[in-house]
Amino acid sequence: MGLFLVSCSSNNPKAVAEKFLKAVNKLDFTEAKKYCDEDTQKLLSLMESFSKDEDSKKAKEKASDDDFTITKVEENGDKAKVYYKAKDSEKEVSLDLKKVDGKWLVSVNKEQGAKEQGMGHDHDHDHDHDTHEGEDMDAPDELAPDDAPNALDSIPADK
């Protein structure tokens, strides 16, 4: 009975987010994958492939469980948002979670993961961007052929 109570008490957004953040902070992607959905696991696999160098080893050694503080939790049905701050930072970041088969899981999309290496949303900027998937935000709205720069097919040789 005690084991049942312990396992249920760790199935809440705050506990899951905390375990996930601690694992990611230590670059323990195998552990972090236990607390997230399939799309987030794919994102973590990508991050893991980039974390095999000496700098990553040093980061793992420096990481500690108190490198972040959870500031609040907002739960709304089968979705939740856990807010946290990194140590020595005033920037509040959030992590989205969703309930899948009765279990809370971290759910990070690619855009969100790219925004913050800590896998969350940045809340210093409250404005939303209306972008469409696949849209290049750096490209001009339209580039008419008359506006296109002239390209050189070849570079003239010195005579």
Summarize the structure in words.
The protein is 33% helix and 20% strand. The protein has helices spanning 2-9, 13-25, 29-32, 38-49, 54-62, 110-115, and strands spanning 68-76, 79-86, 92-100, 103-106, 121-122. Strands 1, 2, 3, 4 and 5 form a five-stranded antiparallel β-sheet that branches. With 159 residues, it is of the alpha+beta class.
Layout of helices and strands:
Elements: H1 2-9, H2 13-25, H3 29-32, H4 38-49, H5 54-62, E1 68-76, E2 79-86, E3 92-100, E4 103-106, H6 110-115, E5 121-122
Q: H/E element string?
A: HHHHHEEEEHE
Main beta sheet: 5 strands, antiparallel
* Uncertain parts: 1-8, 123-154
Q: How does the overall form come out from the CA principal axes?
A: globular
The total beta strand count reads 5
**Whole-Å distance between the termini?**
91 Å
Task: Name the structural class.
Answer: alpha+beta
| Number of continuous helical runs | 6
Short description:
By secondary structure, this protein is an alpha+beta fold. The protein has helices at residues 2-9, 13-25, 29-32, 38-49, 54-62, 110-115; strands at residues 68-76, 79-86, 92-100, 103-106, 121-122. Strands 1, 2, 3, 4 and 5 form a 5-stranded antiparallel sheet that branches.
